[in-house]
From TrEMBL:
<feature type="transmembrane region" description="Helical">
    <location>
        <begin position="351"/>
        <end position="370"/>
    </location>
</feature>
<feature type="domain" description="Glycosyltransferase RgtA/B/C/D-like">
    <location>
        <begin position="81"/>
        <end position="235"/>
    </location>
</feature>
<feature type="domain" description="Putative mannosyltransferase YkcA/B-like C-terminal">
    <location>
        <begin position="537"/>
        <end position="621"/>
    </location>
</feature>
<feature type="transmembrane region" description="Helical">
    <location>
        <begin position="26"/>
        <end position="44"/>
    </location>
</feature>
<keyword id="KW-0472">Membrane</keyword>
<feature type="transmembrane region" description="Helical">
    <location>
        <begin position="180"/>
        <end position="197"/>
    </location>
</feature>
<keyword id="KW-0812">Transmembrane</keyword>
<feature type="transmembrane region" description="Helical">
    <location>
        <begin position="460"/>
        <end position="481"/>
    </location>
</feature>
<feature type="transmembrane region" description="Helical">
    <location>
        <begin position="130"/>
        <end position="150"/>
    </location>
</feature>
<keyword id="KW-1133">Transmembrane helix</keyword>
<dbReference type="GO" id="GO:0010041">
    <property type="term" value="P:response to iron(III) ion"/>
</dbReference>
<dbReference type="InterPro" id="IPR038731">
    <property type="entry name" value="RgtA/B/C-like"/>
</dbReference>
<feature type="transmembrane region" description="Helical">
    <location>
        <begin position="105"/>
        <end position="123"/>
    </location>
</feature>
<keyword id="KW-1003">Cell membrane</keyword>
<feature type="transmembrane region" description="Helical">
    <location>
        <begin position="434"/>
        <end position="453"/>
    </location>
</feature>
<dbReference type="Pfam" id="PF24878">
    <property type="entry name" value="YkcB_C"/>
</dbReference>
<dbReference type="GO" id="GO:0005886">
    <property type="term" value="C:plasma membrane"/>
</dbReference>
Length: 637
């Protein structure tokens, strides 16, 4: 193959076939085993991870209605602020094996292993097993993957479903058969019921690749895409209809919404508001300073993505999560798209570049310029595309290593990866300082050898290629191992060593000491034995009620009781109303009211609305007492 020759294998419509050998199977088995060890090692040792979703998973083990709707409590007062599908898997695992941190997180880890395997299969179909293995290894070693495939947010299931949709689209491009696109649509419909509109960020790349390259006429291609869209709506639609048709007074309130509607949640809090930003409203919203996810005084906070803009993917918030191989992926994508510009319409390689490149560019652009709530771990959705492009471009360029142009691009990819790893490791404030120099010098040396003509040196060329792969993966893999060794705690997760997050400031640090999810003082519900004993002794529908989910989730997990989170996650949802709460109290359905335990950027904000009215009514009509440092009101008449 010659990259500068328009009749090259790259432009062919039939992908290259590797000789039938056993090594790909053995290598794949080794990759999946290593991935399983990384993701299962010490799983659950960090406790319940995000109490918010853990409490919903526990409620799903106690009550089937809570399981169906992903209610935050088994009394079914309010749901979490996402659709229920990811909660279903964690709750079912708890029902089967007993509910512990390990059994809750087990499905997440297995989803990670499956994602690596499916990505290998998708890339292999076009560029061979070598490219598939590089792509799978790159995904497995991505720090954000080691974080989120061991965590209980919905992102693990979302990414598995997106990778499956990518694989099905690759099959559809090969054959032109509508059934593969319908399958992709079904999977994306389930992905919508996992994390709503974020599932659709991959659609432009998948649709463009099929529309350009499927080996059928234009209008059949259009009809196949329409069929996939219909399948997507038909998959997600029934659950949306179920929520709307179910009597509102016999199901939990849809957390995060303003009108108790799952569709409004998708389009509002989890949709337009995430993209464009907003003022005060349900859920996390803007930071207390009024800026997008800001810290005090409007400071753009690292955990909320920092400042929107073209450099966000490489900044202190997102850089160490997913950008290690992003320069190499971008370089290879641009080069191969240029060299395949005159390839036949059905070129599998160009179709693959359009698919994964479209996925990467659209997702990165949306994440970069989002002005609403965004967190670093969202970049897990970007990781499969980056990994796939690195695998495809590396192997395709190496196949043409006798071309000076191909070697030059590989050299740029190698040097760029080394320099960027040096920069990212330098942000870790002294963590393993030797590693950044080894990676930098090694990859610069590889780049020099490529330019010098390493292809002429026989077996030494293979050794150089192997060294490049090891050095390129060393830095993100080291971060991934460090991440697995120190599991995230609290309502958020960031990958890598703690030294890399020294600039968190202003929020107390999610998962850090004194932060919303970290070890605090004796007032925390998870540490308050007297408070736990008090609520365990009740047999009410809700043992207690409190504003926001911080205390509610922690108390539910430590006692196994049902605790009402007034106002949902941040205490700002309009549920329950004062009249509803008063009726619950009159009926004896809720026993205690616990005054808010966490005030500040990470705690509830019941300054107005229903939560404030309920708090005022309770404090006026009932007597407070101290229980292990917590202020508790007995609501029994």
């Amino acid at each position: 193959m010659t990259l500068t020759d328009d009749t090259s294998v790259m432009a062919a419509s039939v992908p290259p076939r590797e000789p039938a050998t056993r090594w790909p199977r053995v290598a794949l088995a080794a990759l999946l085993a290593a991935t399983a060890v990384l993701y299962l090692w010490g799983l659950g040792s960090g406790g319940w991870a995000n109490d918010f979703y853990a409490a919903a998973a526990q409620a799903g083990t106690q009550n089937w209605k809570a399981w169906l709707f992903a209610s935050l409590d088994s009394g079914n007062a309010i749901t979490v602020d996402k659709p229920p599908v990811s909660i279903w898997f964690m709750a079912l695992s708890g029902r089967l094996f007993g509910f512990t941190p390990f059994t809750m997180l087990l499905p997440q880890a297995l989803m990670g292993v499956a994602s690596v395997g499916v990505l290998y299969a998708a890339v292999r179909r076009v560029s061979g097993p070598g490219a598939g293995l590089i792509a799978g290894a790159a995904l497995a070693a991505m720090p954000v993957a080691a974080s989120m495939f061991r965590y209980n947010n919905p992102d693990a299931l979302l990414v598995l479903l997106l990778v499956v949709a990518g694989y099905l689209t690759v099959r559809a491009i090969e054959t032109g058969r509508t059934r593969w696109m319908v399958g992709a649509g079904v999977v994306l419909g389930v992905a919508f019921l996992t994390k709503m509109l974020q599932a659709f960020l991959v659609v432009p790349g998948l649709a463009l690749a099929f529309l350009v390259a499927a080996p059928i006429a234009f209008w059949p291609r259009v009809r196949a895409l329409i069929a996939g869209g219909v399948a997507m709506v038909a998959t997600a639609g029934p659950f949306l209809a179920l929520v709307d048709l179910w009597p509102a007074d016999s199901r939990p309130y849809i957390g995060g919404s303003t009108d108790n509607s799952l569709l409004q949640l998708a389009l509002g809090y989890n949709g337009i508001q995430r993209i464009a930003g907003r003022g005060e409203g349900p859920g996390m919203g803007h930071g207390p300073g009024g800026g997008p996810g800001g810290g005090p005084g409007g400071e753009a906070h690292v955990f909320f993505g920092g400042t929107p803009g073209i450099g966000r993917m490489f900044g202190p918030s997102f850089g160490a999560e997913v950008s290690w191989l992003l320069p190499a992926a971008l370089t290879g994508l641009v080069a191969l798209l240029w060299w395949t510009r005159r390839a036949g319409r059905t070129s599998p390689l160009r179709a693959s570049l359009l698919l994964w490149g479209g996925w990467m560019l659209v997702t990165a652009a949306v994440f970069s310029f989002m002005d609403g709530t965004i967190h670093p771990y969202y970049t897990l959705a970007l990781a499969p595309a980056v990994a796939a492009l690195v695998g495809i471009c590396t192997v395709e360029l190496w196949r043409d290593r006798h071309s000076a142009a191909a070697r030059a691009v590989l050299a740029v990819m190698s040097a760029g990866t080394g320099v960027w790893a040096f920069v990212l490791l330098g942000r870790a404030h002294g963590w393993q300082p030797w590693l950044r120099w080894v990676v930098l010098i090694g990859l610069l040396a590889v780049a020099a050898l490529l330019v010098a003509g390493v292809q002429r040196w026989g077996r030494f060329a293979a050794a150089v290629a192997g060294a490049a792969l090891i050095l390129g993966a060393a830095a993100p893999a080291a971060y991934a191992i460090e991440t697995a060794a120190h599991p995230a705690k609290g309502p958020g997760a960031m990958a890598g060593p703690a030294a890399a997050h020294a600039d968190l400031g202003g929020f107390g640090g999610f998962g850090g000491p004194g932060g919303p999810g970290g070890p605090g003082g004796p007032e925390r519900a998870s540490d308050n034995v007297a408070l736990q004993d008090l609520v365990r002794a009740t047999d009410n529908r809700w043992a207690a009620a409190t504003v926001g989910s911080m205390t509610a989730g922690s108390l539910e997990l430590s006692t196994g009781t049902s605790v009402m989170a007034i106002g949902g996650f941040m205490g700002s949802d309009p549920s329950p109303t004062l009249a509803q709460f008063q009726q619950y109290v009159d009926d004896g359905q809720v026993r205690y009211f616990i005054a808010e335990q966490h005030r500040g950027p990470g705690g509830p904000r019941p300054d107005s609305g229903e939560a404030a009215e309920i708090t005022a009514w309770v404090t006026k009509n009932f007597t407070a007492r101290d229980v292990g440092g917590a202020t508790v009101y007995d609501l029994a008449r």
